[in-house]
TrEMBL record:
Pathway: Carbohydrate biosynthesis; gluconeogenesis. PANTHER family: L-SERINE DEHYDRATASE, L-SERINE DEHYDRATASE, BETA CHAIN-RELATED. GO terms for biological process: gluconeogenesis. This is L-serine ammonia-lyase. Belongs to the iron-sulfur dependent L-serine dehydratase family. It is an enzyme of class 4 (lyase). InterPro entries: ASB_dom_sf, Fe-S_L-Ser, Ser_deHydtase_bsu. Pfam families: SDH_beta. Keywords: 4Fe-4S, Gluconeogenesis, Iron, Iron-sulfur, Lyase, Metal-binding. Its EC number is 4.3.1.17. It catalyses: L-serine = pyruvate + NH4(+).
């Protein structure tokens, strides 16, 4: 039986340039946390990090704790400050709690699972990510702005939340104009608010992401998970 590999570029195969020791447990953990930051869109003041299965057993020895802390501070995988990130989080006054869920199965069915709850300024988001190898991650659950979404996993994803039901079409048109193919969509309504979730087949370049971000304003939230 053939297996689909969710790689968008050669870097997903050979692994990222990174501060070690592990692409799955260090680089993957940084990327999961950076993706949660993209939902919060401001510096987190409080973070609860739950580890499941392999991460729950090995996070201390493989640098996962400081990787999560580094992601909270928006450090990338190559930042030389990564090993000092726990200390730097404390200096920044961020409340970071690690929880080992050793007796529980991953809520998203993967051995390398991190469940993050980030809060700041009265707003809270949740993201559950899996580190699937070589520094590649998948987002399999997120909660933001009153919506609960279970994506298929592979990044990138573009999400909008607004009170404009037609905004989905505007965002879809922009993605089409940028030459970005959509593999999966989710559209939900709750209490007069509309969420449009697009999963892309293509690598999302910095330039194209910046174009999408220009659609963000006071009435339309845009989240780019990549």
């Amino acid at each position: 039986m053939s297996k689909t590999l969710n790689y968008k570029s050669c870097f997903d195969v050979i692994g990222p340039a990174m501060v070690g020791p592990s692409s799955s447990h260090t680089a993957g953990a940084i990327k999961i946390t950076l993706t949660a930051n993209a939902l919060l869109q401001t510096q987190a003041e409080k973070v609860i990090c739950r580890y499941y299965e392999s991460f729950a057993e090995t996070h201390q020895g493989h640098g996962t704790d400081y990787a999560v802390a580094a992601g909270i501070l928006n450090f990338n995988t190559q930042d030389t400050r990564v090993p000092r990130a726990i200390e730097l989080v404390k200096e920044a006054g961020i409340d970071l709690t690690y929880v080992e869920c050793k007796k529980e199965k991953s809520p998203v069915g993967h051995e390398n699972t991190i469940d993050l709850i980030l809060s700041a300024g009265g707003r809270t988001v949740r993201l559950i990510g899996a580190s699937v190898g070589g520094g590649t991650i998948e987002v399999r659950h997120y909660e933001a702005d009153g919506f609960v979404v279970n994506p298929t996993g592979p990044l990138p994803m573009v999400v909008s939340v607004s009170q404009d039901a037609s905004y989905k079409e505007r965002l879809q048109k922009e993605l089409d104009q940028l030459g970005l193919s959509v593999s999966h969509t989710i559209f939900e309504e709750k209490d007069g608010w509309y969420l449009a979730h697009f999963e892309l087949e293509d690598f999302l370049s910095k330039d194209k992401a910046q174009v999408i971000e220009t659609l963000r304003d006071e009435k339309h939230a845009i989240y780019i998970l990549k």
